[in-house]
Amino acid sequence: MPDQPVRDLTDPDWWRSAVVYQVYPRSFADGNGDGIGDLAGLLDRVPYLAALGVDAVWLSPFYPSALADGGYDVDDYRDVDPRIGTLDQFDRVVAALHAERIRVVVDIVPNHSGSGHVWFQAALAAAPGSVERARYVFRDGLGADGELPPADWQSHFGGPAWTRVPDGQWYLHLFAPEQPDFDWSNPEVREEFHDVLRFWSDRGVDGFRVDVAHGLAKDLSEPLASYPAISRDAVRSDGTDVLFDRDEVHEIFRGWRRVLNEYDPPRAAVAEAWAPEGRLALYARPDELGQTFEFDLVQEPWDADRFRVRILDALDFARRAGASTTWVLSNHDLVRHASRYGLPDDVDLGAWLMSDGAEPAEDREAGLRRARAAALLLLALPGSAYLYQGEELGLPEVADLPFSALEDPVHVRTGGRRKGRDGSRVPLPWTADGPSFGFGAGGAHLPQPGWFARYAAEDQAGDPHSTLSLYRGALALRASLPVDFTAEFPAGPSHVVEVVRPGWRSVTAFREPAALPEGEVLLSSAPIGPDRRLPADATAWLRDPA
Ligand code: GLC
Ligand code: CA
């Protein structure tokens, strides 16, 4: 099979069309049987990732952490959590992946540290007004004795975004209290993160996924402005929102790009930014991060018109910013798409999780059919695609996790009103039996349901019709088909999305069957019927007749 430049480790543009596989380390594979996934487990599974055919692996945080937010509360940006492994093991993982020509992207969490970070501990020990406190956002409270928070800002996980310390001051945390926000107007903070980028780049890391990229710059001018609710829809789209997507954030990332370009090839970066359409692509400009996750599609139901609009918009905005698009269907914060597409369109996903899966019932068959079709459509689009561990198995959300097992702070911080994101973070089933379905020799830190057996990777690997085989086939084909950044979307029946690439095309039939155009069928998410009929909820890839 001819090689694509994307697999050439010296290619500076690899990330523009890479397929990146997200590993949530605590739930991927457990090497020592303590129930927590680790680097030893990941090392064992490098052959699996190579056989799957991904171009890169993105590791969610593996740093020392009190796990107040699944590792997104980082206590030390330059080390590995001892429960996950050591820096030596990290180097071995990077070497093993690179030997398979798989690149490594690590998560960087710059909006906040964990509360165990030495800087935050020093800030707590120091006096108000000290340089130690100036790295975070400490303020005096309101009210006669400062007993009220400095502003009405709310935490993303529920409750006030301010916590009071014993000497009476308050500190800001847009997420959990164990996640104090840095003050990015402080040059010391900027220098520190440049140094962290160099630390991992020097270790051979190829790129960074930037957590809450839209949150770093805040309007901290006094008196602090009112901002009573955190909602994506509420973000002011002119760059002057109080907390999110402010214009000044781009200057920070221009500084990052200068650091990332010190390396050869330059290190890649992708923004996790939630911003209004049109402003999102700004993070992906060539002198900034290069990529930003395209999250608009994940908000859409399984509907051809909605998909077409979102895809065309994303391509258009990316092109105008000089970027390529970064597609995604699932990640560790979202309800897995095999479940999303099996639920009624108007379902409130949060309420569905709280119902313990009872009402409304999930149609697993439809969900899987559509998830397979969506994956092929996504992988046919120009740009880069991020896959979330387990989606290649067609894994649904675990909606009925017992409340006592939940780890996500969302559950506690909303007073039990929201269940949180644990349902997409349950350790993977590698085998149909054995302790923790082959995840490790012991248990699993989140309980796996019995039906996980039906999704075991080992069984799927030997079944040509499995979802794992479909993903492998798609990635192998993607690596052999001509790929550039052009695509056409010819008008056709309204329930069909057709993507024309150089020499080949992808056809997706939403909810109703469709007639396939001419050309050899290279791959399809469901068997093609008589008279070249593509069944409902299916995608086929076709070679253009020569
Ligand atoms: C991002 C992460 C999420 C985390 C939050 C705070 O949205 O993806 O998991 O809870 O940032 O760091
Ligand atoms: Ca372990």
Which helices and strands, and how do they pair?
Elements: E1 19-23, H1 39-44, H2 46-52, E2 56-59, H3 87-99, E3 103-108, H4 118-125, E4 138-139, E5 162-164, E6 170-172, H5 187-202, E7 207-210, H6 249-260, E8 268-271, E9 290-294, H7 304-320, E10 326-328, H8 337-340, H9 349-354, H10 364-380, E11 384-388, H11 409-413, H12 457-461, H13 467-480, E12 496-501, E13 504-509, E14 514-515, E15 521-524, E16 533-534, E17 538-543
DSSP E strands, number:
17
Element-by-element helix/strand order: EHHEHEHEEEHEHEEHEHHHEHHHEEEEEE
Radius of gyration: 23 Å
Note the overall shape: globular
| Quaternary organisation of the protein chains | single chain
Strand composition percent: 5-15%
* Termini Cα gap: 20 Å
Low-pLDDT parts are none
Q: Bound compounds, please?
A: alpha-D-glucopyranose, calcium ion
Helical percentage = 10-25%
The main pleated sheet reads as: 8 strands, parallel, barrel
Q: Strand order within the widest sheet?
A: 1-2-3-7-8-9-10-11
Structural category: alpha/beta
Mean pLDDT: 95
Question: Key features?
Answer:
546 residues, alpha/beta, eight-stranded parallel β-barrel, four-stranded antiparallel β-sheet, 13 helices, 24% helix, globular, binds alpha-D-glucopyranose, binds calcium ion
